[in-house]
Amino acid sequence: MQAPSVGGVRLPKGGGETIRLPRGSSLTDFAEKINANPASLVQVLFHLGEMITATASVSDEILELLGQEMNYNIQVVSPEEEDRALLESFDIDFGDPGDEDALAARPPVVTIMGHVDHGKTRLLDTIRKTNVREGEAGGITQHIGAYQVETEVDGNEREITFIDTPGHEAFTAMRARGAKATDIAVIVVAADDGVMPQTVESINHAQAADLPIVVAVNKIDVEGANPQKVRQQLTEYNLVAEEYGGETMFVDISARQGTNIEQLLEAIVLTADASLDLRANPDMDAQGVTIEGHLDRGRGPVATVLVQRGTLRVGDSVVAGDASGRVRRMIDELGNDVEEALPSRPVQVIGLTSVPGAGDTFLVVDEDRVARQIADRRRARERNAELASRRKRVSLEDLDAALKETNTLNLIIKGDNSGTVEALEDALMKLDVGEDVELRVIHRGVGGITEGDINLAIADNVIVMGFNVRAEGKATELANREGVEIRYYSVIYQAIEEIEQALKGMLKPEYEEVELGRAEVREVFKSSKFGTIAGCLVMGGEIRRNARARLMRDSTVIHENLPVSSLRRFKDDVVEVREGYECGLTLGSYSDIKVGDVIETFEMREKPRA
Ligand code: GDP
User: Fold this and answer.
1) Cα–Cα distance measured from residue 219 to residue 188, given in angstroms and rounded to the nearest whole number
2) Which protein residue has the closest C-alpha to ligand 1 atom 17?
């Protein structure tokens, strides 16, 4: 059988085999897998309307298109799958709980969610303050992103870990990356306000993640508070209180006055015991999830991690996302140095060489070298994927769409901690500027703006945003040289406002027609030099040279959009002729002009955006 050809190029033809390629692969990577010459693939793509070099990363769509063309079944491997394979190549099985016999009970990890102003922050504060761990003076003083408290349930001391960033944004961001940090959701509902949109959203998020829910009915101290109404409203969302025969524990609290906080903690423990089997193996290399990270002036990168399995110890070699290093110090929420952290324990880790993102997994490996290699590979992969996503696919079918110019504003967001970066990205993505423009965050990260960031930005329309961070080293110089725009912010809403303005500026201008004048044709002359000349009387407004004109006859439009190409009063060329005066004009080479016709002139003016 003859090999298929596109535009005369002979294709290496497959027999429908499946080829697995990591996202962001290049044509050379592809060619290697099928034993072909990369140049032939470049040519094939060229004939499909793509100009791509052999070593550049290409998008999923192009890989798949090429696969179809050549009869290969291309599977683009997701970053998660790829990461699993990467870890496997180091003999690491992330998420493997280890021996059933080695499992020991661990505390539940709780996220507090609910509508804005219903008291999430206050509740986290109150729990933090009232529950001082035994033997500790001073209580929890540090905000490290999570903390652990103790409570007595049925005569036993039990621990609970709270994620200390309220709201479902952080929770969703982590879940989006496949990180399951939370075991139980506490939904806070203010008794004086009842179920609100974000209450419902929080419930949806929690239920989608299969989390048992405890409801804290807050602000019962407020006059007019109606905790029973909250119970009744929530039945609609399948949260039926125990006292009504359901399975959900409701606790009436006042975060402000510290009422029933112990009862809430007890309800959390009881709910965990009833619906979850929370056990983890403490005798293995630690694995878990990063809750937040930031760059500390004195201490360098600082990350709060939640240990999910194993025990994390000072001196361990760790890799968290694309950051690696060795645990130099661990600090808990009381500000104390700790030597080891068991499952469900959050600790601040110092000793990483860069800042991991919220939701990044972390794990302990045998040697620094392995940690470094994994981090390097992840960083390279991320960069490839970013490069690939920047390239737009232009195939023959899509040519039309591609020709219609798309307006995209690309952003790189750098900030002082991962929570802010995520919050900013989230808020920006929610900006509504219509369908004509698109906002894309092509890279985000914690720390100063680096030369790497600028290099990534050297393409059209990339704005680098620095939130509480500055450009480092030669980055400013490079940005100036390459014309990359860097904007600095320290207030989120200001950042959002400016980007919104920028997006509006990119909207293609809208024009509206403004009528300038009307003239009636009184005589028509034919001139061998000028063509058809209309002798007119200006009836209203003014007639200007170079204005657009419309020719009307008996109130019907005969021709739209003719140019007033010459305009004269007697023998003189003029720029404009006002109402009540006579003039001679030509409408380009248009000749079908009759006495009695009306010429309307207008211009298109840009309409200001709302
Ligand atoms: P968040 O947006 O859910 O984090 O809400 P906050 O914790 O910031 O609380 C919003 C407002 O409600 C603040 O002014 C709190 O002081 C107040 N608040 C929180 N809990 C209570 C409470 O139990 N009783 C009363 N009266 N006010 C409360």
Assistant:
1) 10
2) 119
